[in-house]
């Protein structure tokens, strides 16, 4: 059942992600108009209207800012950190496999922040969780890339733990909790993108782990100069990322994989 849900989630998003769906709607309208159906004007207006709204309005900011503001970074770093959990999603395993060096994407802070934390907390363990999150993939897992990257950055191998089977956030939480076996009183930090933190915290709480959120990779800011700085393709990508998080939280709540619809501190 878990494998079926994983496949369905990928297929669902492939067809219904906003950029693709709006284009399909507009094409249906265009086909209808070409066939002489007057109602086709409405799908064309809806599809093109989405792109126009994305061009004129900071939809990509509005959809992500509530997510990023939900869990603020702690005002003070914990005096003692026993471990750091890093969620996958920041590495490009196919590019790494093709070119032979670790490749990162726009969420690279997920991979750099833990190294700085490790230096400030010499007793902390570093746990990376991430396997293959795509239906079509090569031979490397996300954990393989993380190991290569952090080893090259000088992180001692004996301080690192790698979970290689997780394909989504739910599996990240369940499998990393089973691997780390955190003891009562230990302080573990959860490092992931700020917009991904609400869903992540809810899932980790459901898995029985009261982990400390440590958000990175902020994508929103204040002011028009930030709102309109991104290119149109960048805005579309950011909007889709944010909308996917809201859909993911709702779906996880329906499946009882999170402790709340919109987890809070």
Automatic annotation (TrEMBL):
Transmembrane regions: 12-32, 44-63
Lineage, top ranks: Bacteria, Pseudomonadati, Pseudomonadota, Alphaproteobacteria, Acetobacterales
Record carries keyword Transmembrane: yes
Pfam families: DUF218
InterPro entries in the cross-refs: Cell_Envelope_Assoc, DUF218, Rossmann-like_a/b/a_fold
Residue span, DUF218 domain: 82-248
Annotated protein name in UniProt: YdcF family protein
UniProt organism field: Craurococcus roseus
Keywords: Membrane, Transmembrane, Transmembrane helix
């Amino acid at each position: 059942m878990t494998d079926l849900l994983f496949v369905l989630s990928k297929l669902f998003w492939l067809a219904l992600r906003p950029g693709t769906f709006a284009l399909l709607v507009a094409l249906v309208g265009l086909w209808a108009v070409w066939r002489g159906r007057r109602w086709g004007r409405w799908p064309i207006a809806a599809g093109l209207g989405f792109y126009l709204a994305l061009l004129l309005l900071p939809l990509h900011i509005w959809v992500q800012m509530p997510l990023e503001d939900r869990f603020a970074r702690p005002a003070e770093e914990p005096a003692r950190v026993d471990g750091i959990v890093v969620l996958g999603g920041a590495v490009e395993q196919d590019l790494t496999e093709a070119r032979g060096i670790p490749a990162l994407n726009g969420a690279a802070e997920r991979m750099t922040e833990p190294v700085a934390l490790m230096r400030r907390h010499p007793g902390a363990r570093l746990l990376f969780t991430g396997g293959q999150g795509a239906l079509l993939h090569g031979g490397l897992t996300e954990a393989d890339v993380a190991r290569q990257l952090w080893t090259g950055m000088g992180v001692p191998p004996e301080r690192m733990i790698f979970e290689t089977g997780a394909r989504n956030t739910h599996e990240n939480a369940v499998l990393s909790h089973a691997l780390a076996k955190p003891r009562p009183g230990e302080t573990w930090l959860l490092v992931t993108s700020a917009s991904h933190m609400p869903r992540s915290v809810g899932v980790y709480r459901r898995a029985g782990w009261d982990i400390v959120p440590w958000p990175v990779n902020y994508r929103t800011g204040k002011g028009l100069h930030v709102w309109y700085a991104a290119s149109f393709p960048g805005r579309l990508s950011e909007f889709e990322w944010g909308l996917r998080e809201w859909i993911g939280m709702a779906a996880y709540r329906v499946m009882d994989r999170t402790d709340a619809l919109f987890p809070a501190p």
